[in-house]
Amino acid sequence: SATSTPKRGAFILLEGVDRCGKTTQVSLLVKHLLSLSIAAVAYRFPDRTTQVGGLINEYLQSSVQTDDRAIHLLFSANRWEAAPKLVDTLARGTNIVCDRYAYSGVAFTSAKRAEDRSSMSGGELTLDWCMSSDVGLPAPDAVIFLDLDQDEAEKRGGYGGERYEKRELQMRVRQRFAELQSIDEKQGRIPWHVVDASQSVEEVQARIAGIVSNIIERVQTDTAQLGRMWG
Ligand code: TMP
């Protein structure tokens, strides 16, 4: 009926290691949805346009030693500051296609090794510690993980100059993502779809489009409430 509340949008998250093609696929997916007259908007984290995001940007582009926990909390704060708008966007019926989120936050921080770290606070950056600052954030309806092994990633051209663009770290990041996938699978709330990102842009795009049409359908037929991260 005319008085029924509009269906909420789906929160679709693309994650993966650096150079897996996430950013390209996020923009192709948004265009694809819009071409079908499905309301969609791209989000990305870190969102470097805010004040917090400006600090993150400076950190990523410098080699100045900064406490790893403080940086981790900035990345997390950058998601929390976006959360109200994100929730509102979904409530208005617009789908969100998001480039990185809390999984990147945990995977990157927890992949740092004690010997690489300058942190005064020392100690291991455990998965649990890293996850805790994101507990309660709006949860994606699904994670689409673009999987690419390290050799393939490096074939795509050298990394840029940002501080995380190093082989050893990237390999540990990929491992952390796998751990986060298995945590979500045990909880049984946030489904993961792993896509082989070594295929052509078109093949990856087609695979993602198929997955996403199912996600959107599920969110619209379910009376699915938006979930919360890791609660
Ligand atoms: P970008 O290349 O997608 O802009 O991301 C910049 C870097 O920030 C990338 O190496 C991944 C890293 N990152 C974190 O360390 N923590 C986070 O929470 C996020 C979202 C990204």
Automatic annotation (TrEMBL):
InterPro entries: P-loop_NTPase, Thymidylate_kin-like_dom, Thymidylate_kin_CS, Thymidylate_kinase. The keyword Transferase applies. One of its GO terms (biological process) is nucleotide biosynthetic process. One of its GO terms (molecular function) is dTMP kinase activity. Its EC number is 2.7.4.9. Pathway: Pyrimidine metabolism; dTTP biosynthesis. Belongs to the thymidylate kinase family. NCBIfam families: DTMP_kinase. This is Thymidylate kinase. It comes from Cyclostephanos tholiformis.
